[in-house]
Every structure is written in structure tokens, then in C-alpha cells.
């Protein structure tokens, strides 16, 4: 066997599955793990992607934009990866967002989001409309989360680094859809990550089950009437799966499990394991009507699908009329993103001082920053879609789907789409502005080919010699100035062209290594 499984884990899975199914389950650990990529439809549609990508692709049945690839293809070592055309993702991990059923214009929360694969999947389904609030409580992991949101060209996201209960206090009955990819004991990832198998401890199951209950409780208070929560884990333990869902249903009678369609390899939940837990003193007996609902959950088993182990539950809120008035009042003050309330003092300049209070230095600075951004947008981004209102933090400019007041008191990693920093009256455009733009939205474009190595030289941070004739300019623009650098017409970042040289503005932390 390629993976050394913990003895206690083997014994419990044999007891749960029975000898015949356990034999198939155990044998799956001798099979190779499966690699996948998911197309970023904010930048390219699947058919166009299949026409240009140099990898052999095989569809993943539960995700229309997901494909199996061979790990030997090294999809992370291609300029298209740095252009954000696809996300490298374990195939089973693509299932939860598909079940969330996101539609453009909705308010969506990804509560345990780092490193951001599922958030980018949600953002693609929103198509730039509505809003995504994506969060992780781990400060180090939010760095990867923010970078992935930026790399994949998301314009309508806010990144938080908060506890679920603090977010819940700020956003009561606010979200249409909530994804909880819950922290768990990770048993389903043993084949993918052997370190998880080596470090696994039996008591993790109970520890994480308690955390999951608290997270679900916070999520319930943030969900709008008629909304949907998708709860997922990458573990097999019934304490963290069926029992967690049963306990939640017992405490929240306004919720129901939406039974999953048992196709594409999705197996049903195992309500009989609730009885097994109770008999072993590891759980309690639930009312039959609650236990029966857990059969409508889903499981992806490594011996039944080409992917790792996952648990899935879709929960919808009903009978919550008492929250309806509050939610409707909140929506009546929504912004043009389909999101949070605008500042009522001055909807176009939310950070000016109030009338009659004088022109303090902070207000003057904010006006100068805002004017510098507008000048840059007019000169460099004529025709670009720049939705939302600017949020100003010092000289940094963000376009946000939420009013600044809505974020007060929260640990905000990114309050919106970062477009640049103003210093000495001039705006330096940010990398996230570039990655979300299409070539038609920039005043100047330099297109590099993925075939001749020039794109890789740019991604390594090198200065390039570029003839003036290669800079594509919008009408009225000269080649000199900020240039959107693309690979095969997909955005990579900024450069600054002058007299035959392109000064490289690609961030050091993003460079090809």
C-alpha cells in the first residue's frame, strides 16, 4: 500500500463499511491520486479553453468547467496559469460550489475559504454581478486567498480574516448563499497528502465536530429567508458529517436537507451510522424524521469516483418569516452591485467630511486621491466596466461592493477590487486591476506569445525590448505610458513603455520561479 493509514482509522472504517465494501475502499489507496483543473470562465469559456490549452483534458462529471489532467503535465508551469485561465484543484473539491447553485446578482459568503479555489469558482458563477464575501480566520492563509481572488480577475469580492461569529454580528440575514467548507479531520485527503495520514489523531474527530457546530450556528444567522447553505468536509467520520447535520437540524427546525441527486458517483448519506455512534456512546439518538434527512446528504468515496473523499449537505431555510422584514429593508438600500448600502451622507463621495464641518486635511487628501483615480481611469481605462463606489484607505483605492461602514470593526484583508495607490497626485495601478481587465478595456496593450518564451521572461520580471509598433493603442493614445501586458490576449500585468523598452511592473511575489 502506497499510503500508511492509521491503525485506528482502519479499524473504524472496517466497522462502518463492513468487510466487503471496506476491501474496495482499502484497495483504493493503491490507486494514484487524481489531478484536476477548473476553467476560469471570468476570462475564457470552456470551448475556447479546450482549443488553446496544451494539456489532455477529460471531463469531471460533477463540474461542467472541471477537467482531469495528468500531474506530469505540470499545469502550474504554463503562462496560462499565471494569466488565471484555470485553477488547479482536486476533482472532488469542485462539487460543493456546484451544489450551491449560485446565480449572478446574489450575495454569497464563502466562510472557510483559504486558499480560495471554491471562492474563485463562486466568483465565476456570479459573472461580476452581486457580491462575494470570502473569509478565513487564519491570517497566513488569507494571503493565499487574497492572491487567488486577485489572480483570477474577481472584481466584486471582499476578503475578510474574521471569526464566523463576528461576521454574523455584522451581516444578520444578509446572504443568499453560504458555503461552509468546514475545517475537519481530513481523512478524505490521506491519499492526496500522506502527511495528513501520518499526523492524524483519533480525537480530532470530536474536536472538529464541536467547531463545525459553532460555524453552522453562525452561518444560519447570516442566511436570508429561502437561502441555501452548502456544508462540506473532506473527512469520512460520521461525527463530523451526518451527526453534525442532525444536530444542526435539531437546533434549527427552520432548515431542511435538500436531497441530492445520486448521479455522477455521488453516494447517499448514512443515517444508520447515527445509530452506530449512539450504540458506542459517541453520539445520541435523533428523532427519526431528522435522522432520515441525513440520507439526502451525499458522499464521494475514493473507491467509487475518480477523486478523494468528500461529504456534502445542502441546507435550505424555510419558515423564517420573522427575518423577512429586516432582510427586505436591507435590500432596499443595496448598491448597483446588488450588494451593500451606500453611504447616505454623500453617495458619490462617501469619505468627505459632512457639510458645514470644514475642509480638514483628511477630507482634502481623500478628494485628491479620488480625483487621481478618476483621471487615471479616464485616460487609461476608457470603456472599462468599473462598478461600485471607491473606498479609500490612505492612498489606496478599492472598488467595493459594500459600504465602508458595513466593514467597520472587522478584520478586512481586501475591502474590494484593489485598483491602485496614489502618491504625489499620481495613481500607480495595482496588479489586481490588470488581472481583471480584458485587452479591450486598456488604452495600451502589449501581447506576448506563449510559444516563444517572451511571456515567461516577462513573468520572471525581466525588462523587455519592444518596438513601438507592437504596442496596440486605443484611439488618441500614444505608446508611452502604462501598458497592459497579455499572453495570447489574456491579461498578465502591467509594464511601462518608453523609447523601445518595457519596464516590468510584474510584482516580485508573483514571479515565475
What does this structure look like?
This protein is an alpha+beta fold and 513 residues long. It has 17 helices and 24 strands. The strands form four sheets. Strands 5, 6, 7, 8, 9, 10, 11, 12, 13 and 16 form a ten-stranded mixed β-sheet that branches. Strand 22 (481-487) and strand 23 form a beta hairpin. The protein is globular, with a radius of gyration of 25 Å. Mean pLDDT is 91; it is low at 320-361.
TL;DR of this structure?
Helices cover 30% and strands 23% of the residues.
What are the segments in which pLDDT stays under 50 over at least 5 consecutive residues?
A: 320-361
* Percent of sequence in beta strands: 15-25%
Q: Output the number of helix runs.
A: 17
Classification by helices and strands: alpha+beta
Biggest sheet descriptor: 10 strands, mixed
Q: Rough shape?
A: globular
**Share of helix, binned:** 25-40%
Annotation, overall tally of beta strands: 24
Average pLDDT works out at: 91
Features:
single chain, 513 residues, alpha+beta, 10-stranded mixed beta sheet, 6-stranded mixed beta sheet, 17 helices, 23% strand, globular
List the helices and strands and how they pair.
Blueprint: H1 7-17, H2 19-27, E1 35-39, H3 46-52, E2 58-60, E3 63-69, H4 79-82, E4 86-88, H5 95-100, E5 107-110, H6 117-126, E6 131-135, H7 139-151, E7 157-160, H8 164-170, E8 175-181, H9 194-199, H10 204-222, E9 223-233, H11 242-251, E10 255-257, E11 267-268, H12 272-279, H13 288-293, E12 298-300, E13 310-317, H14 324-331, H15 361-380, E14 389-393, E15 396-400, E16 412-414, E17 417-423, E18 426-429, H16 431-436, E19 444-448, H17 454-459, E20 464-465, E21 472-473, E22 481-487, E23 490-498, E24 501-504
Helix pairs in contact: 1-2, 8-10
